[in-house]
Amino acid sequence: MMDDSNRRQCLETGIPSFDVLLGGGIPRRQTLIVAGNPGCGKTILCSQVAFLAAARGLPVVISTVTSEPHDKLVDALSGFSFFRRELLGEKLFLMSTYASLKKGAKEARDLLVHTVRERGAKLLFIDGLRAIRDLWQDEAKLREFLYELGIGLSATDCVGLFTTEYPLEKLMALPEATTVDGIVSLSVNTRGARRQRRVEVVKLRGRPHLPGEHLMRIGTEGVEIFPRIETQVPSEQDFVPKRHRAGFGLPELDGLMDGGLPVQSTTLLAGSMGIGKTLLAAHFAAEGARRGEKTLFVSFFEPPAALLARAKRIGLDVQEELTSGALTLVHQPPAEVEADVLVDRILREVTRQGIQRLVIDGLTELELSIADPERRRTFLAALSVHLRTAGVTSLFTKEVSKIAGTELDFSDTPIAILGENLLLLRYVELRGRIHRIMSILKMRDSKYDGNLREFEINDAGIRVLAPMRSVEGLLTGQARPVGGSAAGESR
Questions:
Q1: I want to staple 300 with a disulfide (CB 3.0 to 4.6 A). Which of 309, 362, 438, 479 is the partner?
Q2: What confidence tens digit (pLDDT) does each residue in 256-289 have?
Q3: Residues 123-155: tens digit of each pLDDT
């Protein structure tokens, strides 16, 4: 949120996430270029800012620089929800400067400044600086035009917003880059089959802003921007962990952890395919909801109906908690959705509901949705901090690749390193039988029982058994009895 002094110094764009990138909005009396190749979304972004400003009662002037009729621009924008035809004319004035541009720089500048002053405009949007460059073929003339226009707009307390069809690398070598106060670059990146729009505030005179590229999408509502969570990590300077526990509602398991997971901690629940990770996570969510803690369960694999049916088969009925609103189930099918979008939805829901427990069932899918592998560690670290400072106790499930075997490696799982707690579920083979075992491998700054335990899942629920003391090699998946004793006998 902007304070009053910041609001007075800026023109809010009406797109909250864009204002976050800009450090509060477009500084008053400044000029800003939005650059990028055709199809990046420049005209849509700037038009959205213009219409939203007009909707707030601010007079706006939009200038086209070609001989094309305004109907073409209006028709192109009419499909977006920010478009309001009733604003055209009085609050949002469309004009063409093509004839004045053909006469010269002074004539075009005088027309624009006069129109802005006459209408008391607070925003001037010129769509297409490149067309002006191509028309004049004179860099000195263009530089003088932008410089004099900037002075005229500043004198009338008006923001200048311009688009140009140059990629950032080309723009930075042109006079426009040094003449304007700010530069925003739009681009389209390709990663495999994915095409992703990105936005970056490259330059903004006299104001701090979020660095680097950020995800941008275009939908029916217009442009939506998702600032990288790594650039907005809350301070943990005054964070003091609470001493309370968040249990699973399974007495034997909670007893191994001195009552449950430490609240406001991050836990990785890793295990083989089909071993019971989701059901154990469901117990954690259900117990939180039953204690009156707002709980969110996000599944990448199973829709709510299927998850509820599976839980009910082991005696876990959460219909009452769902009806009361204490428990929320969200299904996010694996698809080409960027992690920034997924996490934005989750964090919004955390804030909206005051979530205290969060389960993300399918960490691998979240990791894969982070297009840049080098970003995964910092992304998940930032997510962990966001959740912790919001008072959330989070549990992530992850499938390990081998059902049984000697290899056990979490080096490719950043959350296993960054998270405070690590629980492992694994199959072991002993004398021709497959057994389920669990182990607490790590609980940061907390007491826990590190003994390996066999556990069972049946119609009666999940039951943790006594320690398996008479067997060795359990974590390798290939157990060996000690002294002739076998699992299922004396442990």
A1: 362
A2: 999 999 999 999 999 988 999 999 999 999 999 9
A3: 999 999 999 999 999 989 999 999 999 999 999
Q: For the chain, report the end-to-end CA distance as a whole number of angstroms.
A: 59
Nearest to 368 by CA among 222, 194, 124, 117: 194
Amino acid occupying residue 319: Q
Q: Which helix (H) or strand (E) holds 471?
A: strand 471-472
Residue 375 CA to residue 325 CA, distance in Å, equals 35
Q: Could you give the CA distance from residue 293 to residue 295 in angstroms, rounded to a whole number?
A: 6
Q: Mean of the per-residue pLDDT values for the chain? A: 89
Tokens of 331: 């299904």
Q: How far apart are CA 322 and CA 343, in angstroms?
A: 22
Q: Report the distance separating Cα 81 and Cα 69, nearest Å.
A: 22
- The model's pTM is 0.87
> Could you give the 3-state DSSP secondary structure of residue 448?
coil
Q: At what angle do helices 129-136 and 139-155 cross, to 10 degrees?
A: 140
Q: Considering the chain, what percentage of its residues have pLDDT values greater than 90?
A: 73
* 386: Cα separation from own chain's centroid: 11
CB 125 within 8 A of CB 97: no
